[in-house]
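Per your request, structure below.
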């Protein structure tokens, strides 16, 4: 080995040792290794920060922005209302979401499939009162497995088809990967859904704990003119309310609250529903039933354009303490609607805007986005820590879905590069006011970006130094004289290991020629070897850096670097066990 190879292998060993230890945050470990590699001369200074502009890094950042836009537009609510039920058991939920993710990933880029379903899974976890980390990793693995089935499902398949064309004169076709990839995907999905998820460490990402500390809000929503709920009874809404995790307390009509018997009254336009709910559930119920805020503020009738939810605690010397929202002129002075009041120990019986606010109350305000801090300061309250509350702009749901679908379709058929397609979607979401420009950078998991941006140059340096060729040469010598199934197994194990360490695209580029060389030395068809590489390069389940999908869920799921192998290792073993006989049956030597 050369000096550069020794340094790089040592750096990778130190990095993975520290990441598995978990004492230091993963982004600082990776960035420290990059700096060390640059100082030691194995990474060119001009290439040290190339990873931050790499397509893989850009895709991860843009996918998070696009996901936020889909949430803000109401697209996620549409999917959750149609396909997902938070009352299902965790195993059933994982099986259904995994099946949907696997099917989508077969016909669209698996990163885009996860981008669409990740917010749905997080929203369902919130409604079910569990940590998103329990179901996000199974969803990620399911989308990776689904991508193995077709040519366009994952980049390694496209690369291997191209290498086959260059070497043998004809590429693999769209569904040539389906027999082997399909069997691996079905068996893998079954394992993840029925057993694998139980191996994930029980670790709360903080979402459920954060929400549980706050009392639900008492809120009011009005039936607008032309409401589809007119002439229905309040009790008929109980199913939809329960699904959204909203408690219906009664109805307010002609200035009077009606409880009990009010549930049998037919609703009219202008009626006000009195509810108890968390902010996210309140917003979901508002969107699903086409209701509007009843506070009478300047934000009334808006659906997300330029407005935000703000939570604040009322202090003893606050302007609004001992007064009503109507008395301080919250609506006409600040253009702000009082959406809800959370108060411990006392039942609120008056209209919200006529309720005397007490010190210790928590107010949910709907404010102009550019004046949220000013409103809280004017009221003299203490703002709660931001927990990502958004106002859904449900008037642009189909525009958001259409843009995303068009981008995925164009990228899938090769007419548009995926990072460019996602970038256009992100810009379009801002121009259409689906996602406020001020929130764009808040949705990006910057530690994940630093991790990817730091590891990519190190991986490229390993390839440039001949480190990957060294591995390939050793593999050819190691398998000499072994039977075909054993050679395929060794090839898959080594390819999987490389994919867990390097980018799966780079792994396919290195491993595919090695597979062809091995087949030629044995005097057999290279197709089974290329199929083995295709499945193994995509099956990166041991680390968060082997596949973009695993990187995407690292932050939202609250995972640590060493959490992935617990479910990933048995899954990789299972994929090898079912792929080898299928390859030999469908693609004989």
């Amino acid at each position: 080995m050369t000096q550069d190879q020794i340094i790089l292998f040592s750096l990778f060993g130190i990095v993975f040792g520290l990441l598995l230890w978990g004492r230091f945050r993963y982004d600082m470990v990776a960035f420290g290794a990059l700096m060390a590699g640059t100082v030691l001369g194995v990474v060119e200074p001009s290439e040290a920060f190339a990873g931050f502009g790499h397509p893989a890094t850009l895709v991860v950042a843009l996918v998070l922005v696009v996901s936020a836009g889909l949430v803000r537009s109401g697209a996620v609510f549409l999917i959750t209302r149609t396909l997902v039920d938070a009352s299902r058991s965790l195993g059933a939920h994982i099986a259904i979401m995994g099946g949907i993710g696997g099917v989508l990933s077969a016909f669209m880029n698996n990163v885009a499939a996860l981008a669409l379903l990740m917010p749905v899974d997080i929203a369902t976890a919130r409604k079910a009162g569990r940590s998103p980390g329990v179901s996000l990793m199974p969803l990620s693995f399911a989308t990776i497995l689904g991508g193995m089935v077709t040519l366009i499902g994952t980049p390694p398949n496209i690369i291997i088809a191209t290498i086959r064309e260059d070497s043998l004169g004809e590429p693999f076709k769209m569904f040539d990967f389906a027999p082997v990839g399909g069997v691996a995907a079905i068996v893998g999905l079954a394992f993840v859904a029925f057993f694998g998820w139980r191996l994930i460490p029980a670790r709360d990402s903080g979402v459920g704990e954060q929400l549980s500390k706050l009392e639900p809000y008492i809120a009011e929503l009005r039936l607008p003119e032309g409401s589809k709920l007119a002439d229905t009874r309040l009790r008929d809404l109980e199913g939809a309310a329960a699904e959204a995790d909203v408690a219906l307390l009664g109805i307010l009509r002609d200035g009077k609250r009606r409880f009990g018997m009010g549930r049998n009254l037919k609703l009219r336009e202008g009626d006000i529903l009195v509810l108890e709910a968390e902010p996210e559930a309140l917003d979901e119920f508002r969107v699903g039933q086409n209701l509007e805020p009843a506070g009478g503020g300047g934000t009334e009738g808006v659906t997300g354009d330029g407005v935000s939810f703000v939570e604040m605690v009322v202090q003893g010397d606050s302007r609004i303490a001992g007064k009503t929202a109507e008395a301080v002129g919250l609506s006409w002075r600040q253009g702000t609607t009082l959406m809800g009041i959370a108060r411990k120990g006392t039942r609120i019986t008056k209209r919200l805007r006529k309720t005397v606010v007490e010190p210790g109350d928590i107010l949910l305000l709907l404010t102009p986005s550019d004046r949220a801090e000013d409103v809280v300061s004017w009221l003299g309250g203490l703002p709660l820590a931001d927990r990502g509350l958004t106002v859904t702009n449900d008037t642009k749901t189909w525009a958001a879905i259409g843009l995303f679908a068009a981008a995925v379709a164009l990228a899938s058929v090769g007419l548009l590069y995926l990072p460019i397609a996602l970038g256009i979607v992100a810009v379009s979401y801002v121009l259409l006011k689906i996602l406020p420009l001020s929130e764009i950078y808040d949705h990006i998991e910057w530690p994940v970006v630093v991790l990817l941006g730091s590891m990519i140059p190190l991986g490229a340096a390993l390839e440039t130094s001949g480190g990957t060729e060294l591995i390939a040469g050793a593999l050819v010598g190691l398998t000499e004289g072994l039977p075909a199934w054993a050679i395929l197994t060794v090839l898959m194990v080594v390819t999987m290991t490389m994919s867990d360490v390097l980018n799966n695209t780079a792994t396919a580029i290195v491993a595919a020629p090695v597979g062809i060389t091995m087949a030629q030395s044995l005097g057999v068809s290279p197709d089974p070897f290329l199929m083995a590489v295709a499945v193994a390069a995509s099956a990166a389940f041991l680390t968060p850096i082997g596949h973009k999908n695993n990187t995407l869920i690292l932050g939202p799921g609250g995972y640590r670097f060493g959490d992935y192998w617990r479910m990933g290792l048995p899954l990789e073993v299972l994929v090898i066990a079912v792929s080898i006989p299928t390859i030999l049956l469908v693609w004989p030597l």
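The first helix runs from residue 3 to 21.

Regards,
D.
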